[in-house]
Design a protein that fits this description.
With about 290 residues, the protein is an alpha/beta fold. The chain contains twelve helices and seven strands. Helix 1 crosses helix 12 and helix 6 crosses helix 7. The structure holds adenosine-5'-diphosphate (ADP) and magnesium ion.
C-alpha cells in the first residue's frame, strides 16, 4: 500500500477537498483506496456521503486507530455514492482532538499510524490522509507514514511564508524518519484574473521548480455544490474543470507512487494487535510512559 498525506498548517486551502477528490479519483480508476481523516473538524466523511450520525462516535474512528489497538480495517466504512465502491473512509471521531496529547505519552508516537498502515497493507492499494491545520503529532504521523505529501497552496500573499515552515518540517521528517518522502505543492483555489495569484504561482515555480505540480485547481462552484451533496467533485460533476484538474492530479500522484521501488518487507506486521505485555516484537512500542 502506498500512502499520500495532504497537509498544510493553514486552514481553508482545500486540503479536505483535495484529499476527497484525489482519493475518489483513484478509486474511480479502479484502485482500492482508504482515506483517513486526521482533522478533528471531521469534514472528510461528510464530503464522501456519510452523515453526521456516523461521524458522532458510532463505531471506531481514527482516534481509536491512532491511540489504541483498533486495526485500520475495523474503522473503515464504505463511502457512499455511485462510482465510489472501492473507496473506504476512516472518520476522525469526536475524540480526535485529544489524540495529540495522548500520543505524546507513547513511545514511538510519531509512527503509530505507520504501524497501523503496515498491518493493513494487503487491504488497500493507496491510503490518502487528510491532515489537520497544524504541524503537531497528527500531521507528523501522516508525514512519517507517507510516500508523498501533497501540499495544497492557495496562491495569495502570505502563503509563501507558511510553505517555508512546512518545508522545514518535511525536511526534518526526511532526516529523522522518512528519507524518501516526496512532495508536490498543488496550487488550489486559483483565480486566473487575480494578479497576486499569478505572481505567487510564478514565485513558487521559480523557487521550488519540480516540487510544484503541473496541475492547477481553479476556483469552481461545482466543488461547493458537490460538497453540499456529500459527493467529491470527480463523482458529482465529472465534466467540471475542477474534476478534470483533480483527475490529472490523481494520475500524477499514481505515477509518482508507482515509480517508487517496492517497499522493504516490514520487520513484523500486525504489531499493534500483539499484547503489549506479551514481549512480542514491537510490543514495546505500545508501552505507556509513566505519567
Ligand atoms: N476549487 C475550488 N473551488 C471553489 N471552492 C473550493 C475549491 N476548493 C475548495 N473550495 C472551498 O474552500 C473551502 C475550504 O476548503 P477545504 O477543503 O475545507 O480546506 P481545508 O481542508 O484546507 O481547510 C471549502 O468551503 C471548500 O468548499
Ligand atoms: Mg480540512
Amino acid at each position: 500500500m502506498r500512502v499520500v498525506a495532504v497537509a498544510n498548517q493553514k486552514g481553508g486551502v482545500a486540503k479536505t477537498t483535495t484529499c476527497a477528490a484525489v482519493a475518489a479519483s483513484l478509486a474511480q480508476d479502479g484502485r482500492r483506496v482508504v482515506t483517513i481523516d486526521l482533522d478533528p473538524q471531521a469534514n472528510l466523511g461528510l464530503g464522501l456521503g456519510l452523515d453526521e450520525a456516523e461521524l458522532d462516535g458510532a463505531g471506531p474512528s481514527a482516534y481509536e486507530v491512532l491511540t489504541g489497538r483498533t486495526p485500520l480495517a475495523l474503522a473503515a466504512r464504505p463511502a457512499r455514492g455511485a462510482g465510489l465502491e472501492r473507496l473506504s473512509v476512516v472518520t476522525a471521531g469526536p475524540r480526535l482532538a485529544q489524540a495529540e496529547g495522548e500520543l505524546f505519552g507513547q513511545i514511538g508516537f510519531d509512527e503509530a499510524l505507520k504501524r497501523k498502515l503496515r498491518a493493513a497493507a494487503a487491504t488497500w492499494d493507496v491510503a490518502v490522509i487528510d491532515c489537520p491545520p497544524s504541524l503537531g503529532p497528527l500531521t507528523i504521523n501522516a508525514l512519517s507514514a507517507a510516500d508523498l505529501v501533497l501540499v495544497p497552496v492557495q496562491c495569495e500573499f502570505f502563503s509563501a511564508r507558511g510553505v517555508v515552515k512546512l518545508l522545514d518540517v518535511v525536511e526534518l521528517v526526511r532526516e529523522r524518519r522518512n528519507p524518501d518522502l516526496a512532495i508536490r505543492l498543488v496550487p488550489t483555489l486559483f483565480d486566473q484574473r487575480n494578479g497576486i495569484c499569478r505572481a505567487v504561482l510564478e514565485q513558487l515555480r521559480a523557487e521550488l521548480g519540480a516540487d510544484v505540480s503541473e496541475v492547477i485547481v481553479g476556483v469552481d462552484t461545482k466543488v461547493r455544490e458537490a460538497q453540499a451533496r456529500g459527493r467529491p467533485v470527480t463523482a458529482d460533476a465529472p465534466g467540471s474543470r475542477a474534476a478534470k484538474a483533480y483527475r490529472d492530479l490523481a494520475r500524477e500522484v499514481w505515477s509518482i507512487l508507482s515509480a517508487r521501488a517496492a517497499p522493504a518487507a516490514p520487520a513484523s506486521t500486525g504489531t499493534d494487535e500483539l499484547p503489549a505485555s506479551g514481549g512480542g516484537a514491537g510490543g514495546g512500542d505500545r508501552v505507556q510512559q509513566a505519567a
